[in-house]
UniProtKB/TrEMBL annotation:
Lineage top rank: taxon: Eukaryota
Ranges for domain Glycoside hydrolase family: 37-492
Signal sequence bounds: 1-21
Statement: the UniProt record of this protein carries the keyword Lipid biosynthesis: no
Species lineage: Eukaryota, Viridiplantae, Streptophyta, Embryophyta, Tracheophyta
Annotated InterPro entries: 6-hairpin_glycosidase_sf (IPR008928), 6hp_glycosidase-like_sf (IPR012341), Glyco_hydro_9 (IPR001701), Glyco_hydro_9_His_AS (IPR018221)
Gene3D superfamilies with a match to the protein in the record: 1.50.10.10
Enzyme Commission (EC) number: 3.2.1.4
Gene Ontology BP terms: cellulose catabolic process
UniProtKB keywords: Carbohydrate metabolism, Cellulose degradation, Glycosidase, Hydrolase, Polysaccharide degradation, Signal
Source organism: Ensete ventricosum
Residues the record marks as active site: H418
Reactions catalysed: Endohydrolysis of (1->4)-beta-D-glucosidic linkages in cellulose, lichenin and cereal beta-D-glucans
Similarity comment: Belongs to the glycosyl hydrolase 9 (cellulase E) family.
Name listed for the protein in its UniProt record: Endoglucanase
Length: 499
């Protein structure tokens, strides 16, 4: 059964799941210890090994995963083996994958010292992704943005190791543009060039050169990949915010990577377009930060590079909108204290917003400033760090359910996550091939998943309350994604060092 087809059953399955929970094996124990940020950080990075596609290295630590999708790109005459499956399915979606790379790189750039011994694993997780992006962008004016027919994939519940679904390759080019995915890919490559600059300068040079080429393609041939590819990317990762934010985001990262202002005009133009869109929106400004919308991240990134009055105003407007007592608060908080901003994968906003709060707070501390909210109310940067800390602690178990939303961390965590590889028996225990529908009994059972996808952070509570249903029928709550974990890497590194 597929992720997109079972969401309607979430509420209906609640009684069945709760009844079954009384008799099934449980990871529950009394109480929850204080956060072990070091353990959570290690597991947060280990998760990426469970999402790997392609030929796995000898250093693979999640050994229940095996080689998969080795012939990706064959239909287009290119080698596209590698990269990451974005979530609980077996499609490689290039748009959220690139965003994951940008945030992994930003976590390394901002918190390399705090990462300590986990820096090597962070570099490894990022390089697995950027090696793939280099393959996907090897041809001029062309990006291979997706591998896998999403409808074929979502109609099956099978392991990536022996999937028989269509591995169709999708691309954008000069006649079918995709400026948002080009801008995000350029951002990922540029940010990664900074992250690898000291450890592998030759690789960093290659990444930066490719970032410039990819950005120029996206800027020259402007248009949305949602229009060019239609139903193959929508509604899965359709771009709802427009592509100007990605072009500005890519330009901002290129300015930082090149230590120049050569892309400044592109940034200014993109921000003007975003501001016009906000003014035309009758509902007023709504802040988001994730694979689709980069606006808040742009203002924070620009402000940490160069003091500019307009960027400062917009960055402050954003962070003030997240403070629980602020008059301009634009998000809700659950009774237990979790940021609530979407009925989709809410934890994406939790980790993304918290990361931006922390980065901005550190910047304000470094320049000896304060934040001004609500008609000249002065807010210390420590208040932003406190909010970010509260969100991470909630995620790790300090919540009304006494439940960690990271698989394998703490005494109680989700047991039935919406993830094919985790649900199904591994190749070690079931070497015989499993076909499209062979996995349905494992999906429908109320028994825990067979394989622990350690470090996977699920979508979590998403209805404005602290309610959580541990059920595969609720992918918005129980499906993990690569882009939820990426900003969490930096957060966990910081709190591990500074508490």
């Amino acid at each position: 059964m597929a992720a997109k087809r079972v969401m309607f059953s979430c509420v209906f399955s609640m009684l069945v799941a709760l009844t079954a929970a009384a008799t099934m094996p449980s990871a529950v124990a009394d109480g929850e210890p204080p956060p072990d940020y070091a353990d959570a950080l290690s597991k947060c990075l280990l998760f990426y090994e469970g999402q790997r596609s392609g030929k796995l290295p000898p250093t693979q630590r999640l050994t229940w995963r095996k080689d998969s999708a080795l012939n990706d790109g064959q239909d287009a005459g290119v080698d596209l083996a590698g990269g990451y499956y974005d979530a609980g399915d077996n499609v490689k979606f290039g748009f959220p994958m690139a965003y994951t790379g940008t945030l992994l790189a930003w976590s390394i750039i901002e918190f390399s010292e705090e990462l300590g011994p986990e820096l090597a694993h962070a570099h490894e997780a990022l390089r697995w992704l950027t090696d793939y992006l280099l393959k996907a962008t090897a041809q001029p004016n062309r990006i291979f943005v997706q591998v896998g027919d999403p409808y074929s994939d979502h109609n099956c519940w099978e392991r990536p190791e022996d999937m028989d679904t269509l591995r169709t390759t999708y691309q954008v080019n000069d006649t079918h543009p995709g400026s948002e995915v080009a801008g995000e890919t350029a951002a990922a490559l540029a940010a990664a060039s900074i992250a690898f600059r000291s450890s592998d300068p030759a690789y960093a040079d290659e990444l930066l050169s490719r970032a410039e080429t990819v950005y120029n393609f996206g800027h020259t041939y402007q248009g949305s990949y949602g229009t060019s590819l239609g139903k193959w990317v929508c509604p899965f990762y359709c771009d709802y915010s427009g592509y100007q934010d990605e072009l500005s985001w890519g330009a901002a990262w290129l300015n930082r990577a090149t230590n120049s202002s050569q892309y400044q005009n592109h940034i200014v133009h993109g921000i003007q377009q975003m501001q016009m869109k906000t003014q035309l929106d009758d509902t007023g400004r709504e802040w988001f930060f994730g694979w689709d919308n980069k606006e808040a991240g742009i203002y924070i990134l620009l402000e940490t590079q160069k003091n500019d009055s307009e960027n400062s105003r917009l960055a402050e407007e954003f962070v003030c909108s997240l403070l629980p007592q602020s008059l301009s608060k634009s998000v809700e908080y659950t009774p237990g204290g979790l940021i609530y901003n979407t009925q989709g994968c809410n934890m994406q906003d939790v980790t993304g917003f918290s990361f931006l709060l922390l980065v901005y707070a550190r910047h304000i501390i470094n320049v000896g400033g304060t934040i001004t909210c609500d008609n000249n109310v002065q807010v210390p940067p420590s208040a932003l760090i406190d909010v970010a800390r509260s969100q991470v602690k909630y995620l790790l178990g300090d919540n009304p359910n006494n439940m960690s939303y990271m698989v394998g961390y703490g005494a109680k965590f989700p047991q039935m996550i919406h993830h094919r590889g985790s649900t199904l028996p591994s190749m070690d225990t079931h070497p015989e091939r499993m076909f499209c529908r062979d996995g349905e009994p494992y999906f429908n059972t109320t028994a825990p998943n067979l394989n622990l996808l350690i470090g996977a952070v699920v979508g979590g509570p998403n209805d404005g309350t602290d309610n959580f249903l541990d059920s595969r029928y609720c992918p918005n709550q129980t499906e993990p994604t690569t882009y939820v974990n990426a900003p969490l890497v930096g957060l966990l590194a910081y709190f591990n060092k500074h508490g």
